[in-house]
Design brief:
disordered N terminus, 31% strand, 5 strands, elongated, 5 helices, alpha+beta, 5-stranded antiparallel β-sheet
Amino acid sequence: MRKTLVLLSLLTLSGTALAAASVSIDSMEVDGVKLLDLQCELSSGGGLMGGMVVASTLASQKEALDACASGGGAYKATWTWTAGKTEVQTVTGLPKSGEGCVKKALNQMQSGSTGTCAAGVLVGERSTAEANWASMNPPPAPAAEPAAQPAEAPGPAPTGG
């Protein structure tokens, strides 16, 4: 009975790991790479550990990414994974040379996952990178209070007529 439960548990987890998954993580750090606003739609390689798979895959390029903005920077990127290869669609937030550097580094990622992702990534010196991220993502402005309605002007005074 115990062996059956273990086998069923493993089959359940392996089925979950290969199932399609939406991954949404506000903030995560793996091996010194900080991801922000991670959003993925994975058709394989997602499941319970999808976010960790994505983060560790990005972390495999940490040195190359840090070299793209060693003084500190933040960028947003979108990419797809298909058949173990990466194709970066966009990189924004760094000077053009830094964006090209990040594209080159991210295109070197290899993953068993299939799907699309978008994330913000902090690179290089952390405090500068965090300040850059904050400038890219200013907090929402407080909601404006409705304008006060002007008081109705008093009508003509009644006459005693």
